[in-house]
Design goal:
Largest sheet: 8 strands, antiparallel
Radius of gyration: 15 Å
Strand content: 25-35%
Low-confidence stretches: none
Mean pLDDT: 91
Number of strands: 8
Structural class: alpha+beta
Shape: globular
């Protein structure tokens, strides 16, 4: 995988969450996945095409998700209902949009799909290409799991 894509994702996550939450998230060591089984039951999937093709998959600890939604809504939020799931999808959109802007700086234009947010146990997700897991700590270490899958060759115009 092109390190520029991973660096663009890390910058998108850190900058978006820092602006939204007022503190910098902890980023863990990336690892290659052979099989995608999200760590948590709340999952957001966003696809992207263009200079880079693949998927962003976010898996949230439910308590952390509610804390993030509360911050986004500027009021306490205690249930993972439709509105909360919509807010988590919007967070995914914000990070994917920041990724798109970061990639454009290196000549990789991408289009992102609307987010799909699902709740379920024992999920398995199939993607084409290489999948990297990136643990993110918001409240606790690794309470958000980010998975970046990239299919094929990265097509950027700048080296």
């Amino acid at each position: 995988m092109d390190a520029r894509v991973l660096n663009a994702l890390i910058a998108a996550i850190v900058n978006t969450l820092e602006v939204l939450l007022g503190r910098k998230p902890e980023i863990g060591k990336p690892g290659v996945l052979k099989e995608i089984k999200p760590k948590f039951d709340l999952v957001t999937v966003i696809g992207f095409t263009g200079g880079v093709e693949g998927n962003l998959i976010y898996s949230f600890n439910p308590g952390t998700a509610l804390d993030v939604v509360s911050k986004m809504m500027n009021m306490p939020y205690e249930a993972l209902d439709e509105l909360a799931m919509s807010a988590i999808g919007e967070l995914g959109n914000m990070i994917a949009g920041a990724l798109a802007m970061n990639l454009e700086k290196i000549g990789c234009k991408i289009n992102i799909t609307p987010p799909t947010v699902v709740i379920g146990k024992d999920m398995r997700i199939t993607v084409d290409g290489l999948a990297l897991q990136l643990p993110v700590g918001i409240k606790n270490e690794g309470d958000v799991e980010t998975i970046l899958s990239v299919k094929g060759t990265v097509k950027c115009t700048k080296a």
